[in-house]
Specification:
The complex is a heterodimer of chains A (113) and B (115). Chain A has no helices and 11 strands. Chain A is mainly β and 113 residues long. Chain A has a single domain (4-97), classed as Immunoglobulins (Immunoglobulin-like, Sandwich). In chain A, strands 2, 4, 5, 6, 9, 10 and 11 form a 7-stranded mixed β-sheet that branches. A 4-stranded antiparallel β-sheet of chain A has the order 1-3-8-7, with no helix packed on it. Chain A is globular, with a radius of gyration of 13 Å. In chain B, a hairpin with a 6-residue loop joins β4 and β5 (45-50).
């Protein structure tokens, strides 16, 4: 199993442009999450999904959108990129139920300039 | 009330030392407290987790101590090794019906273990 994969690994985006960060998991996990990681700030939840067709906002959803058309894929869309969206983005997934760990992808380092 | 506060921000110890990382929370509904370890350029990975019905949990050289009344928990790394150099995150979650598995993370602690 590849686990959770994310593409691209790195990207530089110009202010005002849009892009989609891809996330795929092959563990048949119901739940998927998008986080952003900024220095000294920990990980902040952007959006999450408890199954195909079901998504909800996390702590910092502004400027982002998601969709979940399949169990495997959970893309994150950035519209009208701003410098404040410069960050490292992590996708994670887990089984439904109690106390199951979240499995994280390797991350996407995004710079908006 | 949804915050988890973690300290210190960074920590340097000699090989064999016992680094201690502390976390505090306010929301008494939290009932699952995992610790994640992150190496440079990688995603976080679960290290150890505890529920508030126990005061201590050990897995190898890693120990979580939990103080429910003080709403604090800490990670101890016994006999630390240079390979333990990483960033450590505490987190908290609410389980039960309607559980979405959302984690609230602390700010992270960067640990350096010197040879």
């Amino acid at each position: 199993n590849a686990g959770v994969t994310q593409t691209p690994k790195f990207h530089i985006l110009k202010i005002g442009q849009s892009m989609t960060l891809q996330c795929t998991q092959d563990m048949n996990h119901n739940y998927m999450y998008w986080y952003r990681q900024d220095p000294g700030m920990g990980l902040k939840l952007i959006y999450y999904s408890v199954g195909a067709g079901i998504t909800d906002k996390g702590e910092v959803p502004n400027g982002y959108n998601v969709s979940r058309s399949t169990t495997e894929d959970f893309p994150l869309r950035l519209e009208l990129a701003a410098p404040s969206q410069t960050s490292v983005y992590f996708c994670a997934s887990r089984w439904a139920g109690v106390d199951y760990e979240q499995y994280f992808g390797p991350g996407t380092r995004l710079t908006v300039t | 009330q949804q915050q988890v506060k973690q300290s210190p921000q960074s920590l340097i110890v000699q090989k064999g030392g016992i680094p201690i990382i502390n976390c505090a929370y306010e929301n008494t509904a939290f009932d699952y407290f995992p610790w994640y370890q992150q190496f440079p350029g990688k995603g976080p990975a679960l290290l150890i987790a505890i529920r508030p019905d126990v005061s201590e949990k050990k897995e190898g050289r890693f120990t979580i101590s939990f103080n429910k009344s003080a709403k604090q928990f800490s990670l101890h790394i016994m006999d630390s090794q240079p390979g333990d150099s990483a960033t450590y995150f505490c987190a908290a979650s609410i389980s039960g019906s309607g559980n979405t598995g959302k984690l609230i993370f602390g700010q992270g602690t960067t640990l350096q273990v010197k040879p």
